[in-house]
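Ticket 4471: requesting a sanity check on a complex prediction with calcium ion. Repro inputs:
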Amino acid sequence: MFKNKKMNTTNYVFFGFSLLSAGIISGCRTGQQNDERNTGRHPNIVIIYTDDLGYGDAGAYGATELKTPNIDKLAANGVKFTCGYSSSATSTPSRYALLTGEYPWRNQGARILPGSAPLIIDTTKMTIPKMLKERGYHTGIVGKWHLGLGTGDVDWNQHVSPGPNEVGFDYSFIMAATQDRTPTVYLENGYVVGLDPDDPLLVSYEENFEGEPTGMDNPELCKMMWHHGHNSSIHNGIPRIGFQKGGKNAMWVDEDMADDFLEKAQKYIRKQKDNPFFLYYTLQQPHVPRTPHARFVGSSGMGPRGDVIAEADWCVGELMKTLEEEGILENTLIIFSSDNGPVLNDGYYDDAVEKLGDHKPWGPLRGGKYSLFEAGTRVPFITYWKGEIEPAVSDALVSQLDLFSSLAKLVDSEKRGPDSEELLDVLLGKSDQGRKELIIEATTRTALRKSEWAMIPPYNGPAINHYVNIELGNSGEFLLFNLNEDIGQQRNLAKEHPEKLKEMVETFEKIRGKEYGSIQQLELK
Ligand SMILES: [Ca+2]
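Returned C-alpha cells:
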C-alpha cells in the first residue's frame, strides 16, 4: 500500500544528525528560541486550497492533456495521497470542516452560502489559525472565504465583522463568497478595498436595485453568458448571483484576480518570514466564472477552464519561488488540496464542455462536484516539506478534517478538532495508517468510506443534475462499492455482500446518527 520512493535508514540517520546540529546551534541563541524548541516545532505552514479542482485535473493524478508542472513538482517531491478527501462535495462545508476539524453536517449553517450570509463559524470555536496563534504563529488568509461575514444585514461601507479576523486570522485579504456572487469586491481586514464613501456599496439577495441592469434583462451587456442561475447584477460584463449597486471604485477585475491574490500572498510571506506563520492561500480557480489573465488565454487549448488551471498552477510555482527566494522553503510545510471535485458547465457558457477533448477532470472516478460518488470529495491532496518529507505515494485514507489535529500535534498543541484525527506521521509520509473510516457529504446528504469500501444510503432526488450533467449519488437503494476492484463505482455489491453492507450501515449510523435521511435538495441559483 505504502510506496516510498526513497526512504531509507541513511536518511533518518542524517536527518537525526541535522536535528542534533540544529539543537546545538539553537543552544547558543536566546532563551525564547530555546523554549520554542522544547515545546514542539514551528515550521511555517502554507495551505494552498484550489476551488473545484478535480482528482484528474493535475498531471500528478493522471492528467495528460492538461499541464500542471508546478503542482506535479510538489507531488513528485512530497507525499501524493491517492485517497485524500475534502469533507464535502461543495465549498462552504469543506472550508468549514478544514478550519474547525468538525464534520460540516454537525453545523446546520455549513451549506452553500449567498454572499450576504452571516459568519457560520462561532467566534468562540477553536480553529486551526486560533490554535496556531496560541503557539506563536502569525496567521493570514488570502483568497476565497465563503464562510459568511457579519451577523446579518451587513453594511459593506463600514467595518465588516465578524469574519476571518474574528476566528483566528491576524490578516485577511478575501473575497466574501465566490467570484460568481455579489459583492464583487475584496475585503482587507474587514474593510472593502478601494471603496469611495461617496459611492456606497449596496448588496441584496432579495431584489434588484432600481435601474440596475441584470443578466436576465440585459444580455447585450454580457461578455460571458449565463447558462443557469447567474442572471442578476452584471459586473465586468459577467452576470452574477445576487444584486449590487454602487461601490464601482472597489470592484475587482476578474482577469486580475489570480495576480491580486498571489501578490498579497507573496507580500504576506515576505513580511512574516522571520517568524512562524500560517498562510491559508485559497485560490479561486477553476470555479466559475473562469476568467484567465490574458497571459493564459488559450494556453491550455481547453478554453477558460483549462486556462485558469494553468494559471493556478503558475500561481503555485510563483509562491514556491517566493518561499525559496526568502530562504524559508526548508522550514515550510505545504499542503495542497481542493475544496471539492470538478464541474464543467457550472452556470456559464464558457466552452468547458465543448473544448474538453480527452481530458477527464474526475480521473477514473464517478460523479463530480455536488456528488456523493467519489469524484465529489476525493481530490488532489499533497504534502510537501523540503528536506523533511521524503517523496512517496500514500494510499492512506486522509481527510482535510485531519489537518487540525495533525497540525496541532506538529506544533505541540493539546488542541484537537472534534472529528479531526491526528495523522501527522501519515501527512509527513512516515506512516501509512490513515483513518479507518470517513463520512463524506454532498449538499446535506452523507455517505461512508471505510477501508476499500464506499456505501451510499438511499436518497430521494434526481439521479443526475442535468444543468451540470453530474450524477449526484441519489438512488432508491443502498449502494455498496469495492473501490479496490471498482474505482469507477460501476458495480453495486449491496445485494451480493449483505454482511458488508450491514457492517457499513452500522458504522455509518454510529457516527452520523439515524437522522441522515433529513436532507435538502440541491438548488443551483
Ligand atoms: Ca468549490
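Notes from triage: The two ends are 42 Å apart (CA to CA). Leaving this open until the requester confirms.
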